[in-house]
Amino acid sequence: MEQAMTPEEIKEQKPYLDWSLTEKEYNYIADQLLGRLPNFTETGLFSAMWSEHCSYKKSKPVLRLFPNKNARVLQGPGEGAGVVDIDDGQAVVFKAESHNHPTTVEPYQGAATGVGGILRDIFSMGARPIASLDSLHFGELDDPQMRMKVADTVKGIGDYGNCMGIPTVAGETTFDPCYQGNILCNAMSVGLMDQKDIQKGKAAGIGNAVMYVGAKTGRDGIHGATFASADFSDENATQRSAVQVGDPFMEKLLMEACLELIHNHADWLVGIQDMGAAGIVSSSAEMASEGKSGMELNLDLVPQRETGMSAYEIMLSESQERMLLCVNKGHEEDVKKIFDKYDLDAVTIGRITEGHDYVLHHDGQEVCHIPVASLTDDVLEEASEEQKPARLQKAQDEPAWQPTIDNPAKTLRQLLQRPTIASDEVLTQQYDTQVRTSTVAGPGSDAGIIRIRGYHKGLAMTTDGNGRFVYLDPEIGGQMAVTEAMTNIIASGAEPLAITDCLNYGDPNDPEIFWELHHSIQGMADACRIFDTPVISGNVSLYNENNGNAIYPTPMVGMVGLIKNLDHVIPSFATHAGDAVYLIGKTGDDYAGSELQKMLNGDLSGTLPALDLQAIHEYCQKLHQQMVAGNVTAAHDISEGGLGVALAEMLFQGETGMQLDLRSLTAAQLFSETAGRLVVTVPADARETFENEMGPDAQYIGQVTNTHWLELHLQNAEMNENLTDLKKLYKEALPCQLKSKD
Amino acid sequence: MMKIAVVVFPGSNCDVDLYEALHTVCHVDVEYVSHRATSLDGFDAVMLPGGFSYGDYMRSGAIARFTNIMPAVVKMAHAGKPVFGTCNGFQILTEAGLLPGALKHNNGQKFVCKTVPLEVVNNQTLFTSEYQVHERINLPIAHADGCYVASQQTLDQLEDHHQVVFRYADENPNGSLRNIAGITNEQGNVLGMMPHPERAVEAILGNTDGLRLFKSLLFNGTVKA
């Protein structure tokens, strides 16, 4: 690294272009914000803080479309994580974050530190993490490298979460060629707290201390934020220095120390923030900006595990397991004593100063002196060009694809073995799903369910993202992502509360990709408004491309719901013979973007029908009332593979079967993926009430039987399949496809 | 009424689960004790929880055995008082020499979390008297280093002295020799096991097969006291 570059040399040689700062931005900083040329360190700080990852400069205008308030929201976007009231003076805190670029380059560490980072966001708010979720999107498994990447990613998530002692209770895993060169690894964490303990990332009060706690700073992850804001290509396939290395044991100690400080000595603390992307500079500058303060730091005091680090390296390192605190003057030693107990560094590295300047000293020299706001608030928002993708226009002019299904049993057997549909137990068994002994429902259910100790209530949580639909129609696809999360939460017996998201897209400088971003956010926002599930936190991951090929636009929705009475938890499995089976929601000929289409055609095409979000919302509310009234014994949402797959999945847990009259459906419609549908079972004695309340939204289709067979009578076909055989196919498919064949 | 200590090592993470099983479910007097403490005076039994003490660095349990609290744990074991270790607690007990053998990396090379069937091999212990001999129960496991190994001679001795308390039934999830899931010392007052009975004590979580282990201990502890 050219440490000796003078400001003039920087202006001439433009090294900042490699750090993703544009010439226009550089000139604006020099001419408008500083009135001089920035030095080497300052240029580095600007390039990190002005990256999309830190500043959201491109996505901000469209993120404003999201609703982010309702009566329960205590903290919306802008802090470490969003906070929602769950009664009794308690709150749930949650957020999701992407670690796509690091996971693509180094799957094990990338995934592990993704989990570590999102956990810090939760406990920096004052909450104890109680559950983790993930959303993983891989390339196809016929690529041996991809099989290794799947194994490493899952091991990374497991090793970090298991060691931290936080159960991984839900998630999703899909496989499509568009993720071959750019894996998506999104991690979500859910925390629980007393509302009185809410912390903010804020630094204020002249003379107060800026304290660095946790692991020492090394050279890992320098420019990670900038790295996440650029495309992949073969030329920079090994940007390993930009990937961080995780130590979950250190994080466990850091978590316990921070929670002890927050819960017992909140009066010592002004604010606390995770050192995430862009390390010390982003945490300190954002805290100073939030507190409208000035700040002066001496980088010689930063605990370092390598020698000879420059100011630039210290400030931009993304070493893991570190936090920044603002501590009331006079309590520095008290705070240090707490961290000493956990054998962790806790060092005062600076003070809050008068004015609004951000000043750094290193090796006896002032290496940075700029306004705080120039790093955080003055970032040039970029109006992006957008243009409707040509493929969408073309799709409208083509006739819809209509599958011919002669043998639905055979199709069902094939679908159950598709990696996106088949049981992912081989992966989720590597996660501790039960530690903290509060997991009521774990992987394999529609949503993970965690009970809250001391109360008879619980939280349901899910992650859902289906890039295939968003690719075919960004707006409707966005609506579908939120709808699927909502139906998963409803199916578990919970009331939806709010969502977090990870917005995974390609290069936003491509007008067609920006159009996708804009319109899918619009679709998600529409659904969030109607379902009253505001967006309380989230993350944007752009530039997910490899050699110019973008991923499907893949917004991931993480939704949390409240179960007010644990007696109302609804299992995803039908185990009571004699119960009546109902199909909720209308089924159409919706094959565009379906797993069936991908399996039979190898490619996606077509248009999506408009969703009646209001109608879906209304019948889901009615269904929830029936669940609370005790009239529903099992529920499962219908997604990939349609009704056929949903029915089989509902019967894999027990010894029961189903005998169903589906003569209103064609054999093909058994695999249609019309959104917003569920299958539920109802005890015989509750049928009358259930039918009266649900009206035409619930269609009676048959009975749960005590034989382990799935017997279906369709309009143009019959099938009767042994569920033991189907389950074997469903369970063995993924382990088999993950095994090395060469 | 017994008073039980749950030791907290840096990196323990099933300490809360053990505490809650004893306190909330069994209504026992239970306290967390730091690894820095040097005495267990006043306690009738001690439990070592699961987790990743010292991040499993070097070897699972290898560093925890050198902590300040361990001499007090050894003293309790030698005094004949109940000492129980689950998962990482079992690993620490073998590292400390309170139980024979060692726990190696699972033969599948992966962390595995699932509920497995077990056979109660010996119900004549402080910890298992509420079970039937040869009874089959289901308990959760969650570990990467759970493959129990020992010399043939040690294994024969364990069998001869009825020290094998739990065996994996149907399937062996980690490659443990002779399907061993849990053993006691020769005196029978120290039990180590890889499965997690504390995760199976409440119907709301779907399994109560572990409850009788704690009930056994409380019953025997109270009768003896």
Automatic annotation (TrEMBL), chain A:
E.C. designation(s): 6.3.5.3
* UniProt keyword annotations, A-Z: ATP-binding, Cytoplasm, Ligase, Magnesium, Metal-binding, Nucleotide-binding, Purine biosynthesis
Q: In which pathway does it act?
A: Purine metabolism; IMP biosynthesis via de novo pathway; 5-amino-1-(5-phospho-D-ribosyl)imidazole from N(2)-formyl-N(1)-(5-phospho-D-ribosyl)glycinamide: step 1/2
Q: Where is the PurM-like C-terminal domain?
A: 206-361, 577-709
Quick one: which residues bind Mg(2+) 2?
121, 274
Q: Name one GO molecular function term.
A: phosphoribosylformylglycinamidine synthase activity
Write out the residues that bind ATP.
56, 95, 501, 538
- Mention any Pfam family matching this sequence: AIRS
Biased segments, Basic and acidic residues type: 385-397
Does the record bear Ligase in its keywords? yes
Q: Where is the active site?
A: 53, 99 (proton acceptor)
Q: Which InterPro entries match?
A: PRibForGlyAmidine_synth_PurL, PurL_linker, PurM-like_C_dom, PurM-like_C_sf, PurM-like_N, PurM-like_N_sf
Where, per UniProt, does this protein localize? Cytoplasm
Q: Which HAMAP family match?
A: PurL_2
Q: What is this protein called?
A: Phosphoribosylformylglycinamidine synthase subunit PurL
- Name of encoding gene: purL
